[in-house]
Amino acid sequence: MQNIKLTLSYDGTNYHGFQVQQNAVTVQAQLEAALQAVFGQAVRVTAAGRTDTGVHALGQVVNFQVSTRIPPERLPYALNAHLPADIVVTKAELVPPDFHARYSAQSKVYRYTIDCAPFPRVLTRYYAYHLRYPLDIHLMQEAAAALVGKHDFRSFMASGSAVKTTERHVLRLEITEQDQYVQITIEADGFLYNMVRIIVGTLIEVGRGKRSPDLAAVIKARDRAAAGWTAPAHGLVMLEVKY
Amino acid sequence: MQNIKLTLSYDGTNYHGFQVQQNAVTVQAQLEAALQAVFGQAVRVTAAGRTDTGVHALGQVVNFQVSTRIPPERLPYALNAHLPADIVVTKAELVPPDFHARYSAQSKVYRYTIDCAPFPRVLTRYYAYHLRYPLDIHLMQEAAAALVGKHDFRSFMASGSAVKTTERHVLRLEITEQDQYVQITIEADGFLYNMVRIIVGTLIEVGRGKRSPDLAAVIKARDRAAAGWTAPAHGLVMLEVKY
Q1: What kind and span of H or E run contains B98?
Q2: For labelling alongside B217, which of A122, A166, B12, B110 has CA 20 to 30 A away?
């Protein structure tokens, strides 16, 4: 058996998220159907992370076990021939047997894009969240600094999630602006459910002047109600998984 | 009667081009339906230029005559409320009676985007033409230089087009590369039918090493067969009309 790592990108607009579920079109279901077509057998993949409905990926990673003679470098072409145009495999590699897309990951990088033009830019309407209000990105950067580091991010987790620990290490949280697009890039050793979108929603409230940039108290509260709203899914892209 | 100028953007993916035609969904038809809804009367618009099926716009300009009390600055909001999400009016201005979207234009700017990554980037698959082959952009820049200026562009016009003169003045033809996207920006006082896409197709042949960068002979031939292929529509965006 070989352990194969795939890097894939997808436009999440038309999918009910990554993970397979009954009666819904998901990225995983499409990918596994393509793998079955190529290998002639059922293949179950393990992903670095699940993405929600409408969330995109440029560097999602999965791995799976299979016995095949197809050289890994041919796999992207073989799989893409069976995948719809909104899912593209960009890399396939043979990895050691103990490689696990989720547990072996050192960190993941997400990027959220906000379109701050007076009217939504049509060509990015599915990939950037349009906000009618001006954002003070200096205030947002000031607020973001408090989130970098090892913290208990319970306040930034969708309520009702079950996890062993709510401590996560945010390695980087950058906010940039170019051509009226504000981009928030966040890298962490792991993310709680909806963590990126709640952080973005909270930072937007700061940028609009509706919330103090001092987020230390929000972290300390360990209460979802202390943080801001959950920003819409379509502005979010899973950019990279680092191993 | 007032003469009103609108600036609009659209994703051309789902339209049979700009211009109204029988039994086909076009941008103009959608826009005129929105104008009728807002003004309560039939309105016919004049556009700066027609765009083909699949071609996008970020700065298309139209004008029309109407008698209304709605202040121009309110019009984008009123019209967008009646338009689908892939057509967005970004500006409305009252202009002098003699302003004509097409005849008053000094120049138009188009941009063509080529995705040169090994696999197509999914999030730009409708807005960039994916090319599997590497391009030598220095050769393309060298070739482009010959096209700048006042020339007879008959070789770069779809055959069968009827125009008074095939002379056009190309003011600027820039080729840049960033993040594996090659962008070709071209500004001219006017364009012949398919001129941008034939220029792009010809420059791609140069960039792939399949054609000499010396395009002076192509211009001189005054024959469509002397130029290269017509690049696909979906990489093209009408960027701006200058008055």
Answers
A1: none
A2: B110
Structural domain total, chain A: 2
Task: Identify whether B47 is part of a domain.
Answer: yes
Residues A209 and A131 reside in one and the same domain: yes
* Listed residues B74, B95, B116: the one ending a domain: B95
Distance between CA atoms of residues A145 and B146, nearest Å: 52
User: Does residue A192 sit within a domain?
Assistant: yes
Of A88, A121, A122, the CB nearest to B122: A88
Of A86, A121, A123, the CB nearest to B122: A86
Question: CA-to-CA distance for A215 and A224, rounded, in angstroms?
Answer: 13
Residues A120 and A91 in one domain: no
Where does a domain end: B72, B95, B118?
B95
Claim to verify: residue A176 and residue A238 sit in the same structural domain: yes
Burial of residue A197 (CB within 10 Å: 0-12, 13-18, 19+) is buried
Coil, strand or helix at B227: coil
Q: Does B30 touch chain A (CB under 8 A)?
A: no
Q: Could you read off the pLDDT tens digit of each residue along chain A, which spans 243 residues?
A: 999 999 999 999 999 999 999 889 999 999 999 999 999 999 999 999 999 999 999 999 999 999 999 999 999 999 999 999 999 999 999 999 999 999 999 999 999 999 999 999 999 999 999 999 999 999 999 999 999 999 999 999 998 778 899 999 999 999 999 999 999 999 999 999 999 999 999 999 999 999 999 999 999 999 999 999 999 999 999 999 999
Check if A74 contacts B (Cβ < 8 Å).
Answer: no
Tell me whether residues A121 and B9 touch, CB distance under 8 A.
yes
A178 touches chain B (CB under 8 A): no
Same domain for B147 and B46, yes or no, is no
Report pTM: 0.94
User: Residues for chain B: how many in total?
Assistant: 243
Domain ranges, residue B90: 2-95
Q: Which of B15, B75, B123, B236 to mutate to test the interface with A (most CBs of A within 10 A)?
A: B123
Same domain for B49 and B146? no
What pLDDT score was predicted for residue B43?
Answer: 97
Instruction: CATH number of the domain at A31, please.
Output: 3.30.70.580
Residue B100 forms part of a structural domain: no
CB-based burial, A162-182: b 16+ in 10 Å, e otherwise: eeeebebebbebebeeeeebb
Is the same domain home to B81 and B186? no
- Are the C-beta atoms of A124 and A52 separated by less than 8 Å? no
Low-confidence residues of chain B: pLDDT under 50 = none
Q: What pLDDT was estimated at residue A161?
A: 79
**ipTM of the assembly?**
0.91
Cβ neighbours of B56 in A, within 8 Å? 122-123
Instruction: Look at A9 and B122 and tell me if their CB atoms are within 8 Å.
Output: yes
**Residue A88 touches partner B, C-beta closer than 8 Å:** yes
